[in-house]
Amino acid sequence: MTNSIGEIENTDALFVIGTNTTENHPVIGTFMKKAIRNGAKLVVADPREIELANYADVYLQINPGSNVALLNAMMNVIISEDLYAKEYIENRTVNFEDMKKTILEFSVEEGARICGVEAEDIRKAARIYAEADKAGIYYAMGITQQSDGTNHVKSIANLGMLCGNVGIESGGINPLRGQNNVQGACDLGALPNVYPGYQKVANADMKAKFEKAWNVEGLSDKVGLTIPKIMDGGISGDVKFLYIMGENPMVSDPDLNHIEKAFDNFEFIVVQDIFLSETAEKADVVLPAACFAEKEGTFTNTERRIQRVRKAVNAPGEAKADWEIIDDIMRKMGYENNFNSAKDIMEEIAMVTPQYGGITYDRIEKLGLQWPCPTKDHPGTKYLHKGEFAIGKGKFTAVEYKKPAETVDAEYNLVLTTGRVLYHYHTGTMTRKVEGLNNMVSKSYVEISPLTAKEFKLEDGELVSVSSRRGKIEVNVKITKRIKDHVVFMPFHFAEAAANRLTNAALDPVTDIPEYKVCAVKIEKL
Amino acid sequence: MKKVEISINGKKIEVPSNYTILEAARENGFRIPTLCHDERLKPSGACRMCVVEVEGARSLVTSCSTPVRMGMVIKTNSDRVVNSRKTTLELLWADHNYDCLTCNKAGNCELQDLCYEYDIDPLASPYIKYSTNHVDKTNEFYIFDEDKCILCGKCVRACAELEGVGAISFSQRGHYTHISHPFEKEMLLSDCVSCGTCVSVCPTGALMEKTNNKFRNWDIDKKVTTTCTYCGVGCQLELVVHDNKVVRIDAPADSINKGITCVKGKFGYKFIDRDDRLKMPLIRKRGKLVESSWEEAYDLIVSKMKDTLENHGADSFAALSSARCTNEENYVLQKLFRGVIKTNNVDHCARL
Questions:
Q1: Which candidate from B233, B236, B283 shows the least CB-CB separation from A28?
Q2: Taking CB atoms and an 8 Å cutoff, what residues of chain A touch B284?
Q3: Interface test with A, best of B261, B325, B342 (most A CBs within 10 A)
Q4: For chain A, how far is it from start to end, CA to CA, in angstroms?
């Protein structure tokens, strides 16, 4: 998030797109509702009529994958009706004219047709966002998990800058990060192209910096493989040794039949986890790990705040903290870290990671600090791009709407979109082992609109087969008015009826993010 | 903010003019008991425990909802005030379920503490107990016991003002007033999202977590503040520990999440001490995963690492780090693969 969670309740307008906030980030959802009670306007765009849609001034039930069409149409309204922030654009951005040309070539009516909504509603939504003094955009995987997800994000940035909403309090562009420490994992270099602090591995200066800091020679300057490419590498035989710390790709990754093939082909697999997950069952060695309540450390939340994780109880049996296990292996491989505690590791992190330079356990004992926090006396950063963008001038990028990688045809005639439910978390490794949570939602289902159900002669609760070009599962029908006609939704938590047997591994060319939010399926009666 | 001068129990103090008497008193070290007050909620003046005497006022006033005025002379502990609080407590107790012996809330119950402080005689109640015997157990995570409810309304206000759901409200009037879901239906059928915020704020045992954990509140070993393990909001939680077991999760109000939780953060902790947690390393032998020592597991991993490195090179390795693990762990994992193995094939589930 460019901005902070605490700023939400003081905003004048919220544009919520591609995030089912009250189920996936429930506490942020409560702050959004507070903002609405304080008088903020709300625009919601989602193929499902999520809870926040109940409170929306404008709700746009858009087709999966049509975000860019909506955003461009809204920007067309804002530019045509002269509602954009001219002075801000003049002073703080570049490339506006280029984008403007693309936007004006794309009519609001065309956008409405692609999105499957009324043009007038798009106009209303655009006015609400543009006319507010401070307006924040909030999005999640509905924006990013597209085969051109990078463009969807750029389009969001265009809209934010167009109305001068980036770099101000209670505004901003706010991706809601899905996992407790996905922000931190990215910050600390768990990505194939960057060292900790987003310092590029291909940059010779960075290579030299880390060779010195780690006292090693010959660091690779070749950008590594992303997960989808690692799986391809398993199938081709290029990747032989796979090490997994606390992930469950056998349920979470797209096109699971493909993933299964890769797992059967890796020569050696090591998995560290707290339970024998579907992935751990495929491993050659499984190492027992401590869970969050059994170890020390830090997580970085969606507003970039580094907060403490503290040990409350002992780990079961001989389980160890993940960092201790890795540290042991490094020692046995001949490398000595001299880490005696998680605190020691944070000291090294602060030395090599500019954004974390000022972080110490003492400073975050009570309240976490938000990066960038470069020095020991820096107070942390509440919102980004104040006065000037981190890169100097904010850059508009002309983005054109592109169809999803897979569209419906005569055979696969429904659009599948996937997500989470309130009571479960990701692959359910933890939540499905909590009795109450599992009782609330114990098995998968496919949401379908009353009209579509009628068309396919389906009854509520009926067991059906859902198949895509990649796989087939059996699941119960759940008829609900909350989903758009000819679109179906499935949660992906359930290994025994895994939505990801169906999903498409079509990747965004820049980020390799898979298109989980759109694929074509068919439903057959059993 | 403009300041005003007031006097509390004979001591002159200056406070901002938008303060309530309660805020002024608490900030200056005067204790005033409350049951329905919560700084995060609008004052309601429902419980009458916070009454104080204000010179010139006809009756006692509720300090939580009365703003200070220039020159106010306030007594927080006069006989009149103490007698009023006693009567209030007697009335509450008279209408309360008498099961403090076995109530899980004992030792952590604000009503119990105040009855103790004000010397309420549990057997001397002259009033007739109105019992409903109504306990709603339909929610998966908590129960509502109407006979322990003191109608402070904190749950109603927390549900509406903090959680923004409004699943519960007061129903009926007078002696029959109670907390209810729409149309007097069961909790399970209401809009409740089981966030547990009402359970966190309830001052008595009316709203309590369903639990198999037997522990007394005075036997709690420690409370450990930490960051939730589920989504990216980063809620601060307090893990309540008894006998090396997390037995409850509290939510401190002075945190980024303001003490608000979701169902997973508040109630989703019972995976921690499951029997099927991994406790020993496992090694695949003849197709089956069997228990091994750490040494054996490490030796196998390291020898396989060295073999693979020698025969196939660094880029035949790949590591999946984790958005579920700590910053420190992600750092160390990428350091192993970048610094020791010398490959950048490190990624994690950011995209998934």
A1: B233
A2: 283-285
A3: B325
A4: 45
With H, G, I as helix, E, B as strand and everything else as coil, classify residue B157. Answer: helix
CATH number, domain A178-222+289-375:
3.40.50.740
A164-188: pLDDT as tens digits: 999 999 999 999 998 999 999 999 9
Judged against a pLDDT cut of 80, whether residue B352 lies above it is answered with no
**pLDDT, tens only, B167-185:** 999 999 988 899 998 888 8
Domains A5-176 and A414-525 share a fold: no
For residue B305, give the chain A residue with the closest CA.
Answer: A241
Q: Is A283 on the interface with B (CB under 8 A)?
A: yes
Q: Is B194 helix (H, G, I), strand (E, B) or coil?
A: coil
| Structural domain boundaries in chain A | 5-176, 178-222+289-375, 225-286, 414-525
CATH of domain A5-176: 3.40.228.10
Cβ neighbours of residue B198 under 8 Å, at least 6 residues apart? Answer: B142, B154, B155, B158, B159, B168, B207
| Interface confidence (ipTM) of the complex | 0.94
- Where are the domains positioned within chain B? 3-77, 211-277, 282-351
User: In the CATH scheme, what architecture does the domain A414-525 have?
Assistant: Beta Barrel (2.40)
Residue B123 pLDDT class (50, 70, 90 cuts)? confident
Instruction: Judge if the upstream peptide bond of residue B126 is cis by omega within 30 degrees of 0.
Output: no
SS3 A521: strand
Kindly report the CATH class assigned to B211-277: mainly beta
Taking the Cβ of residue A312 and every Cβ of chain B, the question of whether any pair is shorter than 8 Å is answered with yes
The three-class DSSP label of residue A443 is coil
CATH 3.20.20.10 at B3-77, yes or no: no
Whether residues B230 and A218 touch (CB distance < 8 A) is answered with no
